[in-house]
């Protein structure tokens, strides 16, 4: 089955190193919690809010061994009034045997506010 796995994180400032590091941290957690293997990934889509332009969050994937050939793309989030600022989101589309209600979507830092209904208390980052 092909599933979508969501993630989101925030940064303190528009800094390239922080954007890539927080995206990397989010991706490593998403990969670990969902047992994702690069060979089973269809594509990865990152988005960032308009206040983040110092780096492409997709650069985080290039730090992960075995993910060199995974198709990845970055885009800007639409500007919605009162939306969470300084936010990086990801959608990983992958083949998995895990049922949809067992997928662990990853929300770090201030992004935990986005989907409190999916909140899992173990392993949260603050």
Automatic annotation (TrEMBL):
Keywords assigned by UniProt, alphabetized: Amino-acid biosynthesis, Aromatic amino acid biosynthesis, Isomerase
E.C. code: 5.4.99.5
Known catalytic reactions: chorismate = prephenate
Major enzyme class: isomerase
Pfam families for this protein: CM_1
Gene3D superfamilies reported for this sequence: RutC-like
NCBIfam families: CM_mono_aroH
Protein name, UniProt field: chorismate mutase
Species this chain originates from: Thalassobacillus devorans
